[in-house]
Amino acid sequence: MHTAGKVLLIIGGIITAIGVVMIVGGAASAGLNPESENVWEGTSGDFVIPDDDIYGIYASASVSCDQIIDPDGDGTGTISISITMKESIDDSSENGGEYFNKDCEYNSEDDYLDDDYQRVGSISWLWPSADAGDTVTINSDVKIYIVGDIEAFGDAVGGGLTALGGILVAVCGGVILLIGLILALTLKTKDPVIMQQGQMMGGQMMAGQMPMQQQMPAQQMPAQTTAQPYEYEQK
């Protein structure tokens, strides 16, 4: 496999994995689960309002919202949810005021709320007003969950944007993976040529011997001279 293909496959895999993590995390944040994202839960007790927010009251989807007793006291319904100001408040004119505002029209199939839950009302923030730091007393026939709606909606929007960004990142990673796969299948790495040492030395010797044989002059044997004796005449 070519080196460029390997590098692109690794990079594309990492980017795709990051995109998948962003999608999963963003999708989880985009939905509201009152059981895990509440500031208070239960059937009775005191609740100190932490911030200036719209605090929604949520219950199980199995609860009939229409059967909740209207806080105006018209006597209809069989399920009681009561939220009143704690009597220790300095302004005694608000002691005992009903702060639960029933609202059964909020729920729809297309909202970001988990289908196992429904919004049945809110803590009234108009009149009588419940401000940050005030303490309210809760008495309910069913288990309820109190959620800061503005903060939860902001988290849902942020989760949706994160999931959308994760999709784009995953698509980019997939493109890089595809390019890397194409390069890995088309480009081939050239194998290095290995010459054996014996062949190389033999070739060098042959290359070195040939010129020497060509340059070596033919040796000529010296001509043999026959010494002929001198003949002396005797006089």
Question: What's the topology here?
Answer:
Blueprint: H1 3-30, E1 40-48, E2 55-60, E3 81-85, E4 100-102, E5 117-123, E6 135-148, H2 149-186, H3 197-215
Antiparallel strand pairs: 1-6, 2-5, 2-6, 3-6, 4-5
What does this entry show, briefly?
This protein is an alpha+beta fold.
Structure, explained:
It contains 3 helices and 6 strands; from the N terminus they run αββββββαα. The protein has 235 residues and is an alpha+beta fold. It has 2 domains: 56 residues; 125 residues, no CATH class. Strands 1, 2, 3, 4, 5 and 6 form a 6-stranded antiparallel β-sheet that branches. α1 runs antiparallel to α2. The longest helix has 38 residues. The protein is elongated, with a radius of gyration of 48 Å.
Distance between the termini: 110 Å
How many structurally independent domains?
2
Q: How much beta, percentage-wise?
A: 15-25%
Please report the total strand number as a whole number. 6
Instruction: Count every helix, treating DSSP H or I runs of 4 or more residues as helices.
Output: 3
How large, in whole angstroms, is the Cα Rg? 48 Å
Q: Overall 3D geometry?
A: elongated
Helix content: 25-40%
What's the quaternary structure here? single chain
Q: Give me the strand/helix succession.
A: HEEEEEEHH
> Spans of 5+ residues with little confidence (pLDDT < 50)?
none
Main beta sheet: strand number and arrangement? 6 strands, antiparallel
Mean pLDDT: 76
Helix/strand class: alpha+beta
